[in-house]
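Chapter summary example: a protein plus magnesium ion.
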Amino acid sequence: TKYVYSFTEGNKDMKDLLGGKGANLAEMTNLGLPVPPGFTITTDACRSYLNLGATPESLDVEVTAQLRAVEQQMGKTLGAAEDPLLVSVRSGAKFSMPGMMETVLNIGLNDESVEGLAAKSGNDRFAWDSYRRLIQMFGKTVLDIDGEHFSKPIEELQHTKGYAGDLDMTTEDLKELVAQFKDVVLRDTGKPFPQDPREQMDLAIEAVFRSWNTDRAAIYRRRERIPNDIGTAVNICTMVFGNMGDKSGTGVCFTRDPSTGHSGVYGDYLVNAQGEDVVAGIRNTLSLADLEKLDKKCYDELVGIMHKLETHYRDLCDIEFTIEEGKLWMLQTRVGKRTAGAAFRVAAQLVDERLITQDEAVTRVTGDQLTALLFPQFDKDADKTIISRGMAASPGAAVGEIVLNNEQAIERTNAGASVVLVRRETNPDDLAGMVAATGVLTARGGKTSHAAVVARGMGRCCVVGAEDLVVDEAAGTVDVKSTGKQFKRGDIIAIDGTTGEIFEGNVPVVDSPVMTYISHGLEAGLAASPDDATKELVEAVDRILTRADSKRHLLVRANADNPEDARRAREFGAQGIGLCRTEHMFLGDRRQLIENVILADTEDERQEAFDALTPLQKGDFEGIFEAMDGRPVTVRLIDPPLHEFLPDLTEMSIKLALKTERGEEITAHEKKVMAAVRANHEQNPMLGLRGVRLGLKIPGLFSLQIRAIAEAYVACKQKGLDPQPEIMVPLIGSVRELQIVRDEATEIFKEVSEASGVEVDLPVGNMIELPRAAMTAEDIAKESDFFSFGTNDLTQTTWGFSRDDVEASFFNEYFDAGVFGISPFETIDIHGVGALVKEGVARGRSAKPELHCGVCGEHGGDPTSIHFFDSVGLDYVSCSPFRVPIARLEAGRAAI
Ligand code: ADP
Ligand code: MG
Ligand code: MG
């Protein structure tokens, strides 16, 4: 295996092997852009290191060869005493994980080469600044020393000398810091800071490999659904220096505004700085317009490169660059993260600019991004007291208690509060708090700061750089400089990630214009848009969703069991109801009626109970058929175990025991209920008397429901409507079960037809939610008009674990152990449960080629699962009403 690739050997499509950063560095190198020479160690090497605990043997040799090549090209030797070559050792996985893993800069400096660098550059301060940065970064990331042991001495020094910031530190100060830092290393690790440049590099490479497994990286991966086992690549890149003085600097930019999507040059630049300084918010940054004034030549070159990259990648790119003494260097690019709104706008703009096709535009946005646009926003007309404002970094409206660190964020969220995490600036250690919070607010940093980048990535509402705020974590206070107002931990504030405004107290929220568009159409959406940018967004969503609708093979239905939900689903574009549960119709006041069914002693008593229920059920169905007029409504016959309609065994026992103790009489009815509770108690109710088994065990129960459906159908017909009910039998395992129900149904249809004079012949189909049903689907299909895959139960019955219990009980251990990366109840387990779906469809259609097949249950609204269902040729997915637009979009993406 080849473990090391020069930047000249790779390209942008080799992300699996070279990671995103490495693949794109190679792409830029081959485009002829100014990238400092370097090479990439593959993810293969990382996986091997993580599995075996040591780097593969041949890695060393390959690294030497590539390093020699770079040394030759640069005419310098790594860490040489005179004019040393310095390199950075940078992490870079297939998927971008900003700030989650490690990078070490200035590798190759030691007590001798620092003098060489100083002499060669004629800049002592720069050389010693680079050396202190090396020991600091190396100490923290490679040697695992507490970062405070380095940041404290810097703070103290600046404090005692009365400095305003890092730029005031003199060469002598920096030399002093280097001495102190070397002591810290010796004290904390028992060994001196390694002076051998190659040893520094090798240790840094291993540290980057190890950083794949830090807690924060693991949390981030779980959130972003990035697989745990792919590992990171390592990039070794010749150092260029933004910290050489006033003609140098480092920056980050986007080819379009990542929060609005508007084209133009957008970015932050910091003079005389290195690496993370820009995003760490140590000083306030300049804009690219300022850079134009400072260094027109570099600015023009940068803008030219931005256009070139955007045309090449045909998408919004983000870029890291450094200017060393008036020479521009490109250090990174990638297709940039963006807000949900920007994703739609950029896609539509790129179509208008004829850079991408309409179909590509559909693939450029995701269901999750659409979800984010449907969230409510602050009511524009509400009374609001503005506290201050910052920069809009990630859109949304967040209202919550002020918390100032991870612990508080997690504690209050667990207690049910919604919280806004307020910090001076964030760093990767704050991730857990950002995950817990509904919103993030920082006092420092720009749109490219850590907080902004991470919040946008996770769709969290975020405002940054609210410089009017002074955050004191220890005191638990947030002071507003301009007004002198003080807020405390626990006070409610509201932040608007779209405008950057910060409000006092509980601000009311309203529907988003995109939501108005989804429910009431384009005109209404445009009318509800407060400004041109929003109008542009609504139009972009409309264009893309319309295209997706025209392309998708899957129909999208909704799960709904009352007229209200049915209407909402229809507004959202549902093409029918794929799952109408009937058990909810037995709750509330009607629980008594179903209890009467269970308690009936004689046929007559039971029939009486059924007769009381029939008209109620008929009324329910009429309402739903009316709301979904002209579209199919799949009604599932009663499914859950009967005990769900009876009191709980333990509670009932205690209640009766207490009565006995108090000497009160237990009534005959209570005795009867208790007996029924006992009789219906099951050890394993999910595998017990439920679904079709109820229909066979309690004669008349299914008939009641089928009759109610048939009569509701007739009633709607007589009103001139076009009802399209389908009867669905749950938990079928054998064709015989279905046959019995079908015979019953045929009989009832005939009776209802004769009584009403309206012809009744409704489709009768079944759910496939047991492995046996999937494996005998060719038999079942003969008696069935349609299949609906109940993937929740199919997951339970295939894995053999109960959904109601396992998620809380051992799933965390399963995630950690890598049994699965995501709950199989959230995204379908393609290899196991998915295989049964595929098999069931194939077998069913082998007997009945036109068999209509769909899926109902949570997976029907999950993007990854939708793509799978499209690939196995299902006809429709059914999901909760709110997810219908998402399913429409994802079904379109799946078809392209
Ligand atoms: P991340 O993935 O967290 O952005 P990077 O590997 O990109 O980490 O590096 C962190 C910072 O150091 C970035 O600002 C990057 O531009 C800078 N950097 C990395 N390598 C070099 C180099 N060879 N010369 C100068 N700056 C560098
Ligand atoms: Mg970083
Ligand atoms: Mg970077």
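Key point: The mean pLDDT is 92.
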